[in-house]
Amino acid sequence: MADKFDVIVIGAGPGGYVAAIHAAQLGLKTACVEKWVNKEGKTVHGGTCLNVGCIPSKALLETSHKYVEAKEEYDELGIEVSDVQVDVKKMMARKEKTVQNLTGGISSLFKANGVTALEGTGKLLDGKKVEVTGNDGEAKTYEADNVIIASGSIPVDIPPAPIDHKLIVDSAGALEFQEAPKRLGVIGAGVIGLELGSVWNRLGSEVTVLEAMNDFLPSVDKTLAKETQKILGKQGLDIKLGAKVTGSDVKDDEVVVTYTDSEGEKTQTFDKLIVCVGRKPYTESLLDEAAGIELDDRGFIKVDGTCKTNVDGVYAIGDVVRGPMLAHKASEEGIMAADIIAGHKAEMNYDAIPSVIYTFPEVAWVGMNEQEAKEQGIEVKIGTFPFSASGRAMANNATQGMAKVIADAETDRVLGVHILGQHAGELIAQGVIAMEFGSSAEDLAMTCFAHPTLSETVHEAALAVDGHAIHMANRKKRK
């Protein structure tokens, strides 16, 4: 008789491992299946996020930014250093150590919470049975009352630039360079492309970003997107919009890329090319036809607002379902699914999921942007405040950017918060909390913020919604 669990989770990324731990904490007999194998041939948890995504990229972004600060900005602060060098191999070793610590930590959390770790590739069969095929090729079938699918996503390939894992790489390959390529091409000016381009630009690469769309960061509020493009351009990123890649040719350790723009066909030669044009749900060999799970026309597993599939007792979360492909979104969905399985009432507010781009300065937002409000016919009032007017930002030598609060003109309810600036990814939590509790702009404006802090930019932007910002000229007078 097959082993039986209350819950089997397929995938141990930020959605799956969180779901498994929370289910076990709720008293459910839980197992989690993972097939990811590291360079040493050992199964590791954490999925794309911890192994080749969020964590390693942030380690490189932080190190490369500190290098630029020491090289270009310390003198202005009165710190004299000379001959600043970066050891890329040592930087990569630190990145690997950070990944090992975190993935090993998840394995320890599984043990501490009583989660059974199943090593191998999971496949959902009919009747909520899960077949796990180990690396040795042997398969074993387990039974479950409930299954949570958290298989994640993989990079999208494009025919004009096939990945060879040498000169043409995906986002994972871009985290493994052992030296900064002299000429680096990046296909895609999305979050991943801009972050990876920033890392290698800081370390000395001449970076060209080719983006097929004519709009820069279309999901970001246009005011912030325009300013972000300007700042990144000054940093050295050559961002070409409306540049559609049509082909690539590898010759003599170089990649010749052909693309078309408004002026016609062009070519550019690179030493390395990163392809990061998006990701797609990973369902390869995941679902037996007899399992009856429905997919949409883009390959995502169909779910309702609580992540239930069309099959009773089967849930799907994270990148494999609709919504933004964000680690924290996957984690919250995993918690929601586990709560529902345990008999609790749970829901998720999809209008209050923050997004962050970890360039410098960072870009972060939650909720509606100005153009979306206009498209929906919502009358809004807006408050902005520049980091250049923040005492803490001045002290930090980080005055680029702004905070923007968008509120409903009739109800004053906060509809969106958008931040471009140092530590924007941390500051955006204030906007998320405000929206989660249905706050008004006045609620934010009447809240006491510590001084001097970067958080005060959000406070002042909220005050500015009604023309009451203190540290900038106001257009309105308080009545």
From TrEMBL:
Spell out the molecular function terms from Gene Ontology: dihydrolipoyl dehydrogenase (NADH) activity
Keywords from UniProt, A to Z, are:
Cytoplasm, Disulfide bond, FAD, Flavoprotein, NAD, Oxidoreductase, Redox-active center
Q: Which reaction does it catalyse?
A: N(6)-[(R)-dihydrolipoyl]-L-lysyl-[protein] + NAD(+) = N(6)-[(R)-lipoyl]-L-lysyl-[protein] + NADH + H(+)
Q: How is the cofactor bound?
A: Binds 1 FAD per subunit.
Domain Pyridine nucleotide-disulphide oxidoreductase dimerisation: residue ranges: 353-462
The protein's matches in Gene3D superfamilies, at most eight in alphabetical order, are given as:
3.30.390.30, FAD/NAD(P)-binding domain
Main localisation: cytoplasm
Which SUPFAM superfamilies does the record cross-reference, listed alphabetically? FAD/NAD(P)-binding domain (SSF51905), FAD/NAD-linked reductases, dimerisation (C-terminal) domain (SSF55424)
EC no. given is 1.8.1.4
The keyword Nucleus belongs to this UniProt entry's keyword annotation: no
| Subcellular localization(s) per the UniProt record | Cytoplasm
- Indicate the segments forming the FAD/NAD(P)-binding domain, all copies: 5-334
InterPro entries noted in UniProt: Class-I_Pyr_Nuc-Dis_Oxidored, FAD/NAD-bd_sf, FAD/NAD-binding_dom, FAD/NAD-linked_Rdtase_dimer_sf, Lipoamide_DH, Pyr_nuc-diS_OxRdtase, Pyr_nucl-diS_OxRdtase_dimer, Pyr_OxRdtase_I_AS
PROSITE patterns, per the entry: PYRIDINE_REDOX_1
Cofactors demanded by this protein: FAD
The remark listed among the other comments is: The active site is a redox-active disulfide bond.
Family note: Belongs to the class-I pyridine nucleotide-disulfide oxidoreductase family.
Q: What is this protein identified as?
A: Dihydrolipoyl dehydrogenase
Q: What lineage does the source organism belong to?
A: Bacteria, Pseudomonadati, Pseudomonadota, Gammaproteobacteria, Oceanospirillales
